[in-house]
Structures are given as C-alpha cells and as structure tokens.
Specification:
Layout: E1 28-32, H1 37-49, E2 53-57, H2 65-78, E3 83-87, H3 99-113, E4 118-121, E5 135-139, E6 148-149, H4 150-158, E7 166-170
Parallel strand pairs: 1-2, 1-3, 3-4, 4-5, 5-7, 6-7
C-alpha cells in the first residue's frame, strides 16, 4: 500500500513507476452498488460500450447498501478486479460519522488492503480517510472539451498514471 495516498492516486510523474500498463482486454471493472441502480446501469453500459469487462455487486432487496458493502467488496476483491467503481455513494455527505459511513469506510479499506484502487462516481462528500479513494468522477451530460471518457479515466487509475483527484467524465452513448 502506498504511504499517505490511495491506491491508484498518482498525481505527479515523480511518484509514478514507468511500466507498460494493463491491456484493455485484461481490465475488469468491479461495480459496487451504493443503491443508485440507474447510475449503476449507466456505468456498466459505458464499460460495455468502451470494451471493458464489468462485474456487478448489487444490493440485496432487504438490506441497505452500507450493510452489504463489506461482503460485496470481499466478493469483488476475491475476483481480482483491476478497479472498484462505486456509483452514487451518499454516505459521506454529512461528515462521515454515521454508522453507514463507518461501514463504507471499512469496505473501502478492504479494497486498499487488496491493492485495488477505488473510484467514486457522482458521490456526495468523501471518506474521512482520503487514502481510501483514488479519484472522484463526475458525470457530465453532453459534449465538452474538459471531459474524458470513463475508459480513459479508469485507465489512468488502473495504470497508476498521474491524474487529478477529481475528473469530469462522459459515459458515451450510454450516458443519454
């Protein structure tokens, strides 16, 4: 685990180790539901459209996303995904001290310990421990020069290349 930063949170060339990177055909994206099934489907669809393999960990019908986060994260880390994407996480919007925030931080810590970067998409707030997430992505509708594709943003994180802490992304044709 990197000291003082999240797995996949490289922001400068000096901390980046030169390497070839993971081939697109070998990338598996773990999508861990935080309860926003519409955004979950959009992320999975964008992965499919961009040629990335996605595996989905959904929330059980009788449990909260926070209650299932730990078990679902263990399932994703045991599948050896390259990155975990958590769409629409709202647990940290009120300071991160609630039971829900504690359960989510524990799940994110499991990914960190497994060496898997975590990407939040359209989240509310951030975990208290900034070392738990590599980047926050914000979905932008419509064309924009400042927007990157989901594939390109995830590749930066997976390959541990320099990137900002927050990025705007387009979900391509699936973003409509």
């Amino acid at each position: 685990m990197p000291a003082g930063s999240a797995v996949g949170d490289t922001r400068t060339e000096s901390t980046n180790v030169t390497h070839d990177g993971v081939d697109k055909a070998d990338i598996t994206v773990g999508v861990l539901s935080a309860g926003d099934t519409v955004l979950d489907r959009r992320i999975i669809g964008a992965c499919r459209d961009e040629g990335l393999r996605a595996v989905y960990a959904s929330v059980g019908s009788d449990e909260s996303p926070a209650d299932s986060a730990g078990v679902n994260m263990q399932g994703l880390t045991s599948r050896v995904v390259n990155v975990v994407v958590v769409p629409g996480l709202q647990a940290f919007g009120h300071g991160g001290s609630s039971k829900e925030a504690v359960l989510w931080e524990s799940a994110l810590e499991d990914a960190r310990e497994a060496g898997i970067p975590v990407v939040l998409v359209d989240n509310s707030g951030h975990p208290l421990k900034r070392t738990l997430t590599a980047v926050s992505l914000h979905v932008v509708e419509g064309p924009s020069d400042a927007v990157t594709t989901l594939e390109d943003a995830l590749a930066l994180v997976i390959n541990d290349n320099p990137h900002p802490r927050s990025m705007e992304v387009s979900l391509g044709t699936n973003g409509k």
